[in-house]
């Protein structure tokens, strides 16, 4: 496993140094792309899992943090500019990837800012390796994929996942569920609050992300709950309670009611700092200035 620089012509990012991390999962080589910006103590930014997941959604937050920290933002395997092979994407892949990536890239405990579904993975790593992180910020944390949230059982999720993975029908189903009009609908429903920000150019960029070869495999795993790292709220809360480092939770005031109630339950736990800000599940991208302002003092506060 190694890291290397990528040429600017091969990348689309937010102005940082773009690198490639060569990783393997069960003898399958994967190319993982990540980007660094700024100098100082390291901060790892982990984008939310979604059909449009990419490190670019952390771009403005990265730029705000970079005068004070060295920011590292990564494209998860199966998403963004990273490799998208037809793996059976499941939690073990991302658990191992995150542990290996942190060990390969960082030499000291780091601050981590995780959005959405990435929250469960950083909590699990912190539980298993308590010295990995020095502080943790969870932005609109979630632990359950869209279909399970809607009440679909694992059998239904497996059927849907199998259909999307199939060679011809799967490509058709995936394309129907990633049209620009459908992406705009989903953003309006529970990702962004200000629909004026959903410009044709913005939606076109998101659509392009979904159309890369192999994009449907990890996306289907997320939507059907196959990469849910925990399967009930009590396990998620137990991970939070086991933390030995400072934790701050950012809640979007317009998050879907079920998700917001679960975030508030986390925020109510002892020793958890929290704040409610404008936005929904995509608040780290839609309201980066507000998120930065809310976490700035927390990031600079001395450890007890």
Question: Can you walk me through this structure?
Answer:
This protein is α/β, with parallel strands linked by helices. The chain is built from 13 helices and 9 strands. The chain has helices at 59-65, 91-105, 118-128, 146-149, 154-165, 169-176, 180-190, 200-210, 215-223, 233-241, 257-267, 283-286, 288-300, and strands spanning 2-5, 17-25, 28-37, 41-46, 69-74, 110-115, 133-139, 247-252, 272-277. It has a 9-stranded mixed beta sheet with strand order 1-2-3-5-4-6-7-8-9, sandwiched between helices. α1 runs parallel beside α13. The chain is globular, with a radius of gyration of 18 Å. The mean pLDDT is 94.
The end-to-end span amounts to 35 Å
Q: Give the integer mean of the pLDDT values.
A: 94
Approximately what portion of the residues adopt beta-strand conformation?
15-25%
Main sheet specs: 9 strands, mixed
- Order of helical and strand elements: EEEEHEHEHEHHHHHHHEHEHH
Specify the structural class.
Answer: alpha/beta
Please state the CA-atom Rg, rounded to the nearest Å. 18 Å
Shape annotation = globular
Q: Can you give me a brief rundown of this structure?
A:
The model has no long low-confidence stretch (mean pLDDT 94). Helix 2 packs across helix 3.
List the helices and strands and how they pair.
Blueprint: E1 2-5, E2 17-25, E3 28-37, E4 41-46, H1 59-65, E5 69-74, H2 91-105, E6 110-115, H3 118-128, E7 133-139, H4 146-149, H5 154-165, H6 169-176, H7 180-190, H8 200-210, H9 215-223, H10 233-241, E8 247-252, H11 257-267, E9 272-277, H12 283-286, H13 288-300
Parallel strand pairs: 4-5, 4-6, 6-7, 7-8, 8-9
Antiparallel strand pairs: 1-2, 2-3, 3-5
Helix pairs in contact: 1-13, 2-3, 5-6, 5-9
């Amino acid at each position: 496993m190694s890291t290397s620089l990528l040429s600017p012509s091969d990348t689309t990012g937010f102005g940082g140094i773009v690198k490639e991390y060569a990783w393997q999962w069960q003898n399958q080589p994967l190319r993982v792309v990540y980007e660094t910006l700024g100098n100082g103590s390291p901060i790892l930014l982990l984008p939310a899992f979604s059909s449009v997941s990419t490190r670019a959604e952390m771009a403005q937050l990265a730029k705000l943090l970079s005068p004070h920290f060295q920011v590292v933002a990564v494209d998860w395997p199966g998403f963004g500019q990273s490799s998208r092979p037809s793996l059976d994407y499941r939690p073990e892949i991302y658990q191992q990837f995150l542990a290996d990536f942190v060990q390969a890239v960082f030499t000291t405990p780091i601050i981590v800012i995780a959005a959405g579904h990435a929250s469960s993975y950083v909590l699990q790593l912190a539980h298993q390796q308590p010295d990995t992180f020095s502080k943790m910020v969870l932005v609109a944390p979630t632990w359950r994929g869209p279909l399970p949230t809607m009440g679909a059982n694992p059998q239904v999720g497996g059927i849907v996942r199998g259909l999307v993975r199939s060679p011809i029908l799967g490509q058709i189903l995936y394309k129907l569920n990633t049209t620009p009009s459908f992406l705009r609908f989903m953003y309006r429903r529970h990702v962004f609050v200000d629909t004026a920000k959903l410009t044709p150019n913005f939606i076109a960029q998101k659509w392009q992300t979904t159309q890369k070869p192999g994009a449907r495999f990890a996306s289907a795993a997320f939507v059907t709950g196959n990469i849910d790292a925990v399967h009930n709220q009590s396990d998620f809360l137990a991970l939070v309670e086991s933390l030995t480092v400072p934790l701050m939770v950012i809640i979007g005031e317009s998050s879907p009611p079920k998700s917001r109630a679960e975030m508030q339950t986390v925020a109510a736990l002892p020793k958890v700092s929290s704040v409610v800000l404008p936005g929904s599940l995509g608040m780290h991208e839609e309201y980066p200035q507000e998120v930065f302002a809310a976490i700035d003092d927390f990031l600079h506060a001395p450890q007890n």
